[in-house]
Design a protein that fits this description.
The chain contains three helices and twelve strands, in the order H-H-H-E-E-E-E-E-E-E-E-E-E-E-E. By secondary structure, the chain is α+β, with helices and mostly antiparallel strands. Strand 9 and strand 10 form a beta hairpin. The longest helix is centred in the N-terminal third of the chain and has 26 residues.
C-alpha cells in the first residue's frame, strides 16, 4: 500500500513538472537580461621613429590577408572559381523532386525546369509528455540557388484555463550552395521571433542538407537564433515522394528559453 502511494505521488510530481515546460520557457526568456558591453577606446601612440615604408608594408600585408580571407569565405559559402565550368554551376531546379524519372531535386540535362517554385509543408509534433505543436512552412524557391523560407510554429501544453501557448517565427533568405541530383546543401540568414508574452526577436541562422534516393529523401535541418531570445529546432526527416506530394516522419529537438523538447513529428507537403 505504501509503495503504491509513493509511486502515485511520484507520478503526480513528474506530471506536474512536465506540464510547465512552456511556462518555464517563457519565464526564462522574459527574465533574460540583455548583456551589453561597453566600448573601450584605445589610443595608439605612434612612435615618430617608424618610417612610412613600415606603414606601407603593413597596409599591403593587411590587404593581402583580407583578400585571401574574402576569397576563402566566398568559395566556401557561394562558389569557387574552379566550379564555374562544372555541371553543378549550371544545375537547374526541377518542378519537384524525382520529376520525370530524374534522380532528385536538380537536373544537369535540358528539360522542364522551375524559375519559381513553392514548397509548402505542415507538420505535427509531440514530445510524448505534455507539449504538442504544429509547424507550417512555405519555402519560395526562385532561380536555382535562392529561397525565402518562413517557418511558423504553434506550441501548446495543458487544457482549459491551465493551457499554455507559445508561438515562434523564423524567416530566412537561403542560398543553395551544393546542387546535385542526389545531394544538396544550403544555408540561410534571417530573423527569429518568439511571440506571446515574450515578444522578442533576434538574428537567426539556418543550415540544411538533403539526400535523394528515389522515391525517398532524407533532410537534416537546423535553425536557431544567435542574438535575442533563444529558440532553435534540429530535425532529421525522411520523406516519401509521390508526384508533387511528400509524406514525412521526423525526429525533432526544440530548444526554447533553455527548455529542451525531444520528440517525433509527422507531416505532408506539396510542390507548386
Amino acid at each position: 500500500m505504501k509503495k503504491g502511494l509513493i509511486l502515485f505521488l511520484s507520478f503526480c510530481f513528474i506530471s506536474g513538472f512536465s506540464q510547465e515546460k512552456l511556462k518555464k520557457a517563457k519565464e526564462n526568456l522574459k527574465s533574460r537580461n540583455e548583456q551589453t558591453s561597453g566600448v573601450v577606446k584605445v589610443v595608439e601612440q605612434v612612435s615618430p621613429r617608424r618610417s612610412y615604408s613600415n606603414y606601407d608594408n603593413e597596409s599591403i600585408f593587411d590587404n593581402l590577408i583580407f583578400q585571401l580571407t574574402l576569397g576563402l569565405v566566398t568559395s566556401a559559402t557561394i562558389e569557387s572559381p574552379w566550379e564555374t565550368d562544372t555541371d553543378m554551376h549550371f544545375a537547374e531546379l526541377l518542378p519537384y523532386p524525382f520529376y520525370e524519372k530524374s534522380k532528385g531535386d536538380y537536373n544537369y540535362e535540358l528539360r522542364k525546369t522551375s524559375k519559381f517554385r513553392l514548397d509548402l509543408s505542415s507538420e505535427y509534433f509531440t514530445d510524448f509528455e505534455s507539449v504538442r505543436g504544429i509547424q507550417i512552412e512555405p519555402n519560395l524557391r526562385f532561380g536555382n540557388r535562392l529561397g525565402l523560407r518562413v517557418n511558423y510554429a504553434h506550441y501548446w501544453e495543458g487544457k482549459g484555463i491551465d493551457k499554455e501557448n507559445l508561438n515562434t517565427l523564423f524567416a530566412t533568405l537561403d542560398y543553395y550552395r551544393v546542387r546535385t541530383p542526389v545531394f544538396s546543401l544550403n544555408w540561410g540568414i534571417g530573423v527569429g521571433y518568439v511571440a506571446n508574452e515574450v515578444s522578442k526577436a533576434g538574428l537567426a541562422l539556418r543550415g540544411g542538407a538533403e539526400i535523394n534516393l528515389k522515391p525517398i529523401s532524407i533532410q537534416v535541418n537546423y535553425k536557431g537564433t544567435i542574438t535575442g531570445p533563444y529558440a532553435s529546432v534540429f530535425e532529421v526527416s525522411p520523406s516519401y515522394h509521390y508526384k508533387n506530394y511528400r509524406f514525412n516522419v521526423s525526429y525533432q529537438q526544440h530548444g526554447i528559453g533553455g527548455i529542451n523538447l525531444y520528440g517525433m513529428g509527422a507531416g505532408v507537403g506539396i510542390y507548386l
